[in-house]
Amino acid sequence: FIRHCTGWRRLYSSVGASDIDHFKSILPPAAILSTVSPSALPSAELDPYNNDWMGKYHGSATTVLRPKTTQQVSDIVRWCASRNIAIVPQGGNTGLVGGSVPLHDELIVSLANMNTVRSFDPVSGILVADAGCILQSLTDYVAPHNHIMPIDLGAKGSCHIGGNVATNAGGLRLLRYGSLHGSVLGLEVVLPDGTILDQLTTLRKDNTGYDLKQLFIGAEGTLGIITAVSVLTPPSPQASNNVILALPHFDNVLPLYKTVKRQLSEILSAFEFIDRTAYDLAVKHGQGRALSDEDVDGAACFVLVETSGGRREHDEEKLTDLLTSLLEADSPLINTGVLSQNPAQFSSLWALREGVTEAVSKEGKAYKYDISIPLASFKDVVDATREHLRSKGLLGDHAVKHVLGYGHVGDGNLHLNIIAAAYTQEIQDALEPFVYELVASYRGSISAEHGIGAMKTHALHYSKNDVSIEWMKKIKALFDPLGIMNPGKVLE
Ligand code: FAD
Ligand code: MLT
Ligand code: ZN
């Protein structure tokens, strides 16, 4: 660590009193939070910025800047480039791979004050918003116009649209609306030398050469700071319903998915999976309302199906027909199905799925693996990981308490979580490279949707070949020759 730190010192400058003086010429005093003399805020004031959502990654930034305008961001970055000060762009700090907090004492540029909607066209549904707008506020903003955001995730109350784009977050609506690579139409980005790249187009079609904005979607702040986003918002469905299905075996998930797709066709909008352990934890930690004992009896796992369509009666009829045919089949794929009857029950069923993340973090310290693998292997991967930990003598209340799986079946994305009493090197060594080798054996992805951040830089090669990594490095060097933009993230 010391050698690492010394190398860092040679590469980057720390923020000093003269830098703070300069920042004062760019920003009002309230937008500068610093422990550097003479400001000398207590360092605890910076804790929410220096520590990530899971309490796993910890930075030691001395200064957080909260600009309000793109020009201010540009002026800050230009100064940092001239002084070799490394920067961590930060949104809602809900990232799960340690990308949003410093590795050392980088300057944090928080986008939280850039939270204005720039325009919304109710005819096309195109929304242009500052990067720091909270996802839930944007959902609320477009709702009266009968539009929804194309993305939804459990962190919606805190994460920013800029953070969503920077991580190319997937979430609960990807099955219906596709990834942000499709729904983001334009971006405004401050490049690592301070240049403002204005690609904030609101055009649906624009084939004028290289589509530069795509590079910043999922770049996790390593190529520049996103300051505004233009996004296509779909019309609100006229009717949404959901049902939780209890399954006796995991093996039924695949045939169930095929049946559900065939019967619901265009109205299917989500097909989400939680195993029994995930369900029990969600209930234990008060996420959503528990199903009755009778409904969960003998259930090995659960699937949440959502429909979104144009006519309530039509959709309800389809969903009821589906349930009836599933329950009356000769060898039923499900034990029971619980259909929501009103908006409160609809939200409560969703909370059982969305709340797993929160429940996991209340239960203990989570090692989170977010992987793309063939759907048929979801259970094998969870079981193999549990057995591997058992063989190392690490299963038990003193070490690993639970190994569980949940995720987005429709997207082939499993969240493999290992909950322990504490983060320890022993558990870490047991899990890695074991999990990554397992994923690579399926030619899967070590990051389906959360990104690489600081957590997986050393493991990138399990999912990207040497040529791909070499070109990623060339792109990074082209945009950021000084390497000041979120160093140590994505690429080592
Ligand atoms: P941060 O956490 O602040 O930052 C994440 C990364 O993006 C960092 O590398 C940061 O440097 C960079 N960044 C942030 N803002 C900018 C910007 N303006 N310009 C350039 N770089 C920037 N993720 C999913 O994909 N799907 C889910 O379903 C999902 N559910 C979640 C549920 C919970 C309860 C939690 C806590 C997290 C969940 N996440 C999920 C992970 C996380 O919420 C997403 O990755 C989210 O998009 C991060 O947004 P943020 O604003 O919090 O970004
Ligand atoms: C989810 O699907 O719930 C999120 O990606 C968060 C998580 O993996 O816990
Ligand atoms: Zn997810």
Give the key terms.
binds zinc ion; binds D-malate; Uridine Diphospho-n-acetylenolpyruvylglucosamine Reductase, domain 3; seven-stranded antiparallel sheet; five-stranded antiparallel sheet; Uridine Diphospho-n-acetylenolpyruvylglucosamine Reductase, domain 2; binds flavin-adenine dinucleotide; 492 residues; 19 helices; alpha+beta
Give a description of the structure:
The structure is a single chain. This protein is an alpha+beta fold and 492 residues long. It folds into four domains: 112 residues, Uridine Diphospho-n-acetylenolpyruvylglucosamine Reductase, domain 2, CATH 3.30.43.10; 116 residues, Uridine Diphospho-n-acetylenolpyruvylglucosamine Reductase, domain 3 (2-Layer Sandwich), CATH 3.30.465; 118 residues, 2-Layer Sandwich (Alpha-Beta Plaits); 87 residues, Alpha-Beta Plaits, CATH 3.30.70. It is built from 19 helices and 16 strands. The strands form three sheets. Strands 13-10-12-11-15-16-14 form a seven-stranded antiparallel sheet, sandwiched between helices. The chain has a five-stranded antiparallel sheet with strand order 5-6-9-7-8. Strands 1-2-4-3 form a four-stranded mixed sheet, covered by helices on one side. Helix 2 packs antiparallel against helix 4 and helix 11 packs across helix 15. The longest helix has 17 residues. The mean pLDDT is 96. Bound molecules: flavin-adenine dinucleotide, D-malate and zinc ion.
